[in-house]
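User: Can you recover a sequence for this backbone? Please restate the input before giving your answer.

Assistant: Of course. Working from this structure:
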């Protein structure tokens, strides 16, 4: 960011937001890593058991614990670091999480011991939970409102890219002899943490964090750097004033504690239930079943090239998050998420029904692979990104860090439950349910319930500042009415705009003479509804307003 950009350029905001997504790569890489190494022969020989015919396998209990214990760490990390992000800042919280992550990786490679490996998985989860709860919070607070959804959704895109990278690395090392087959992918995780620590040593702190503690000068410096404007620029002053007004209103209720996250005032409890449930459904649709156990599950289903299929699903997953960055602002969070859940429901029911009717045949295996890939495509675009964006921007500043931590903690609890239970649900043998592809009935049903919940409970927040979102929740009674919400700052101009429309039609006023000082926030209400005011270089056709 040392090079010169135009005043008000979005490049610094985009670069900072994009760098933060490396935390998503770190999370995704670990997710994809465990999916591959569970199916590697050297790993099974090191931590598994041998059948009488000489075949090595990993018992369901070890498979379950090695995966699920990460989720336990994710929950602890996300829940405990909300306080750190509030007191010490978003940057230091992210650096702290990265250091903890590196300690966990070191534990996994230190000795070939199941207890130490499992403990390292927990510590890695703790660090990842800290990064994944603070990262989207930091992104939402530094991003301009009209690209906030895209920047925050980029975190999920980075997660899918990390899973894809891990699948490629796993496929490259799986045939190596000895422990290096699974140790090399684990060692690579150090790279992501080192990059994060190095970068956040120089990036600016969130201006909203500084404002929360009355450090307006530091907030002004940070915001000017992020928005690439002079510190005395009117746009900077206006945004700081808006943050300050919102914060003063919230702080008038006193110091914030975890209890405040569960209060009804300011629709806080409603929003917390929203965040927790959205993140719960993002797990209950079963996506991590494919990401954690996909390679092993495809092997059990009789598919010989399971590592290649895993790479294909992860490539599709990453690719489909890219159009999501556009669609989340075009369609809105609420509509996009409903479409994602319905698509997930349909594809998973097809897998389950064909598997139930056709049994263990070539047809059922082809349907399993093809519709698993289609399901992953739909989930990666229409469920993961909008869920993360909704949680990142829903809560008021006063309780934002703690509320996001609780919501993501709920995500990790369900991640833990699913990771713990899935091997017993899917695998055959004594003590297991042997559901096989019938497990998709469960994930599909949860997807349908998720679509219903979003329609009833989730508000549309596209195009609003974080402060205007507060106003939305306090003035619109039902979620399905939120699309028509107009902030007071625009409503105040309604009479003036109507008069201008009327005068312009009679020729009394030439509307094109009106100057716009800030095209970023320039929008008006006309007789036809909200319209964006063009910049001065685009002011042709103003009479059509």
């Amino acid at each position: 960011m040392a090079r010169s950009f135009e005043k008000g350029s979005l490049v610094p905001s985009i670069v900072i937001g994009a760098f933060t997504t490396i935390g998503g790569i770190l999370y995704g890489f670990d997710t994809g890593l465990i999916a591959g190494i569970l199916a590697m022969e050297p790993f099974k020989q090191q931590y598994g058991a041998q059948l009488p015919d000489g075949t090595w396998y990993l018992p369901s209990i070890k498979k379950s614990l090695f995966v699920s214990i990460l989720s336990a760490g994710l929950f602890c990390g996300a829940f405990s670091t909300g306080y750190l992000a509030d007191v010490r800042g978003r940057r230091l919280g992210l650096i702290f999480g990265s250091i903890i992550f590196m300690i966990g990786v070191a534990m996994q490679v230190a000795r070939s011991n199941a207890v130490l490996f499992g403990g390292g998985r927990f510590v890695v989860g703790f660090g990842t939970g800290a990064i994944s709860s603070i990262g989207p919070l930091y992104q939402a607070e530094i991003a301009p409102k009209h690209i906030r959804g895209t920047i925050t959704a980029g975190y999920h895109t980075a997660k899918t890219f990390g899973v894809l990278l891990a699948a490629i690395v796993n496929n490259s090392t799986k045939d190596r002899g000895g422990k290096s087959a699974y140790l090399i992918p684990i060692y690579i995780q150090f790279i992501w943490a080192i990059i994060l620590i190095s970068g956040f040593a120089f990036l600016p702190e969130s201006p909203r964090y500084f404002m929360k503690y009355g450090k307006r000068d530091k907030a002004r410096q940070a915001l000017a750097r992020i928005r690439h404007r002079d510190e005395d620029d009117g746009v900077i002053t206006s945004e700081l004033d808006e943050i300050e007004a919102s914060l003063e209103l919230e702080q008038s209720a006193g110091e914030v504690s975890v209890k405040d996250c569960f209060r009804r005032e300011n629709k806080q409890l409603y929003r917390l239930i929203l965040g927790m449930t959205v993140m719960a459904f993002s797990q209950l649709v079963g996506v991590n079943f494919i990401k954690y156990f996909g390679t092993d599950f495809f092997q059990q289903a009789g598919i010989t090239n399971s590592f290649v299929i895993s790479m294909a699903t992860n490539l599709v997953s990453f690719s489909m998050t890219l159009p999501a960055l556009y669609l989340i602002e075009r369609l809105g969070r609420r509509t996009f998420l409903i479409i994602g859940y319905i698509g997930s429901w349909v594809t998973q029911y097809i897998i389950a029904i064909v598997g139930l009717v056709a049994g263990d045949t070539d047809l059922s295996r082809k349907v399993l692979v093809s519709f698993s890939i289609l399901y992953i495509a739909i989930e990666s675009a229409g469920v993961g990104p909008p869920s993360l964006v909704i949680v990142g921007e829903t809560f008021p500043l006063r309780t934002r860090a703690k509320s996001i931590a609780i919501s993501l903690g709920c995500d990790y609890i369900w991640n833990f439950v699913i990771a713990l239970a899935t091997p017993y649900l899917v695998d055959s043998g004594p003590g297991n349910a042997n559901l096989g592809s019938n497990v998709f009935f469960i994930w599909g049903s949860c997807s349908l319930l998720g679509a219903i919940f979003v329609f009833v409970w989730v508000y549309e927040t596209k195009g609003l500042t974080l402060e205007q979102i507060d106003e939305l929740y306090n003035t619109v009674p039902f979620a399905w009415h939120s699309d028509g919400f107009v902030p007071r700052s625009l409503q105040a101009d309604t009479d003036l705009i109507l008069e201008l429309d009327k005068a312009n039609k009679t020729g009394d006023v030439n509307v094109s003479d009106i100057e716009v000082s800030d095209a970023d926030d320039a929008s008006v209400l006309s007789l036809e509804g909200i319209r964006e005011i063009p910049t001065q270089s685009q002011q042709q056709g103003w009479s059509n307003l």
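That completes the design. The chain is about 70% helix and 0% strand.
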